[in-house]
Amino acid sequence: MSTGTLLAIIIPIVVVVALAAVAVSLMMRRRHLRERFGPEYERTVEGSDSRFAGERELRAREKRHDSLEIKPLPPVSRDRYTREWTSVQEEFVDRPEDAVHDADRLVTSLMHERGYPTEGFEQQMKDLSVEHGRTLEHYRAAHEVESLSTRSQATTEQLRGAMVHYRAVFDELLSDGGRAQPAPS
What we know:
The protein is mainly α and 185 residues long. Helix content is 78%, strand content 0%. The protein contains eight helices and no strands. The longest helix is centred in the first third of the chain and has 35 residues, at 3-37.
């Protein structure tokens, strides 16, 4: 066989193998993003100009998140937050709007102590999405009612729902996303 014939056979094989490797790599990256972000993956991709743009946004969130110093709470802080949450729940009976505002402040405070920046709701959502993508809908729903409440437009049932949503986010942040906590030293 001549060199030209061998090259005509080998080059297309190499190109096909390279394309297959790229395709597998893209599929693995997409799978990683879907698993890490949960429902937030679809929400971000659907809200973007293209799947590629949405995935680029998610990778940028991962990169920002990796630069943060997110830490678990020490047991003393965890106990304090648990007591504060109980107080907020008790407040709901007599002052539901105030309780929802306090629940929002408590979740924000918990985020801050864990190491999440708290400079604005949209950025909070992006930062939380990396490790807590499965509870973001709770946070969105609670925040929406909290905003209605600020304008005195939320019903008692909406306020009750907001408390349930805030509780889901609170529990997730308090437990460090369900990960085991390091033993105290």
